[in-house]
Amino acid sequence: MKPQCWALVFFGLLGCVTVTSKGVRPDELARLDGYRGGPEAFGAEPEVQTLAGDKVTVRPDSYVFLDLPGAHMGGRFESIAVRDGVFDGRKLDGGRVQVRLDQITSARVDQPNRLAAWAVTAGVLAGAVTILLGTYLFFSLTDFGGIAGRALRVRGRQVAAPLAAVDGWQRPGSRPDMSTLSPEGRRALAAAWTETARAEHASVPAFSRLSLTLVALGAPARLVERAHVAALEEIEHARLSFALAAAYAGESVAPGPLAELHDAPAVTARSLVELAEESLVDGCLIEGVAAAAAASSLAGARDPAVREALGIIARDEASHVALAWEIVGWCCRHGGADLRRRLLKLAHRMPSVRPPPEPPPRLAGELGAHGCLPLAAWRKLLEQTRIEVASRLASCGYF
After folding, report:
1. How far apart are CA 49 and CA 93, in angstroms?
2. Is residue 108 one of the residues assigned to a domain?
3. CA–CA distance, 200 with 242 (Å, rounded to integer)
4. How large is the C-alpha radius of gyration of the chain?
5. Cβ contacts of 33 within 8 Å, gap of 6 or more
6. Overall number of domains in the chain
7. Does a structural domain hold residue 63?
8. CATH classification of the domain holding 76
9. 44 occurs within a structural domain
10. Taking CA 393 as the corner, what is the angle to CA 384 and CA 68, rounded to the nearest 5 degrees?
């Protein structure tokens, strides 16, 4: 296995199986008064009630995150006191969080899965020597930039086409200005836009299969039509992204055959429950992050060709998120109370989304001007999107 593949296994497993997130009401934070965390923890481990109605124990290795208007804060705490309506926490990194409970709009407790963490750590240590050989890791990792369309899954595995020397997947138009880019920056941007293009290309059949699934489950015509429109929009996104990737690489970049589709089932869900869960994760959450990342990247980009591409992608991805919510709403209206409760629970244990790698600080300026989002900004958008999905499910008319 190549070095970058070992790294992907590590980050993917660590992100997906070692953390469980639970949303809690801000007033439940009062139960954390007297909490002690970290390696020197002592005393009782407090319990708080989640938005789904169950209980979560705040352990010494737990993370507590708070959202306020325009701010996101939290982490692992050494101690927490809640007196007179004020949350006063001292973090293990030396920071302090002091805020009134009535200013907190939402809160979340993240719980590391200890057994899974040990298993992942053991597996990763076995391949540590291989990982260390990958000195070119930054330029080889996928999912750079955090902008992608709807995930294409075949039998539970996310797939995308390999690269090939073919024509027909590059949109004619303006080219980015590369006069101020370093060679290292160009290589990084070529890798970033190539992975974005592969993901957008895979989204075309993902939406085609969604349209078939909608028909199979008796969905109204407007939803089927919008799924087809989304597939056409993803073709444009792929063309734009492949064109940028080719410009930065200085050679043709295009997708080859996506052979996994030969054995892929035509439909992706066989019940309203499966369709609703798929739409919540792949549409509301993952495409929600992609839409937010595209809009944020657009705000920071300065190159005209990049801004043109990001403007189209951000607009269309936002409409795809709206479609996902419409599908969730239709499923809820016809699926009954059990489906609604199941979705609400799913919203508070959403799978993690693999983050893009952190670019070297010396490249941050030139990459940002060409549409690459810093890791810290991407993580913030992910947390905001997770909270928004849970909050919308808890408060919308479906429930």
Report:
1. 27
2. yes
3. 9
4. 22
5. 80, 81, 82, 83
6. 2
7. yes
8. 2.30.30
9. yes
10. 35
How far apart are the C-alpha atoms of 46 and 357, rounded to whole Å? 35
Q: Contact, 101 vs 26, CB < 8 A?
A: yes
- Torsions phi, psi for 39 (to 5 deg): -65, -25
3-state secondary structure of 344: helix
Which of these, 9, 260, 256, 270, lies nearest to 155 by C-alpha position?
260
Q: Tens-of-pLDDT digits for all 399 residues of the chain? A: 444 444 433 334 333 334 577 888 899 999 999 898 865 555 568 999 988 788 888 988 888 988 877 677 888 888 899 999 999 998 876 778 889 998 898 888 887 655 444 444 444 344 433 322 232 222 233 333 456 789 899 988 889 999 998 888 988 877 999 999 999 999 999 999 999 999 999 999 999 999 999 999 999 999 999 999 999 999 999 999 999 999 999 999 999 999 999 989 999 999 999 999 999 999 999 999 999 999 999 999 999 999 999 999 999 999 999 999 999 999 999 988 888 888 888 877 776 677 776 778 889 899 999 999 888 888 899 889 988 888 888 775 554
Distance from the Cα of residue 196 to its chain's centroid: 13
3-state helix, strand, coil in the chain (%, to 5): 55, 15, 30
Same domain, 200 and 295: yes
Is there a single domain that holds both residue 265 and residue 198? yes
- Quick one: CA torsion of 113, 105, 332, 349, rounded to 10 degrees? 0
**pTM of this structure:** 0.64
Q: Which residue has the tokens 């990001």?
A: 310
Residue with tokens 């992907």: 8
Q: Which helix (H) or strand (E) holds 207?
A: helix 183-216
The set of residues, in sequence order, having a beta carbon less than 8 Å from that of 108 and lying 6+ positions away, is 21, 22, 23, 24, 64, 65, 74, 383, 386, 387
Whether residue 35 contacts residue 80, with contact meaning beta carbons closer than 8 Å, is answered with: yes
Tokens of 326: 């419409």
* Full residue range of the structural domain in which residue 64 is found: 19-112
E strands along 297-381, which residues?
Answer: none
CB 355 within 8 A of CB 11: yes
Cβ–Cβ under 8 Å, residues 260 and 162? no
Exposed / middle / buried, residue 296 (Cβ in 10 Å: 0-12, 13-18, 19+): buried
Q: What are phi and psi of 161, to 5 degrees?
A: -75, 145
Which tokens belong to 9?
């296994």
Structure tokens at 63: 């993370």
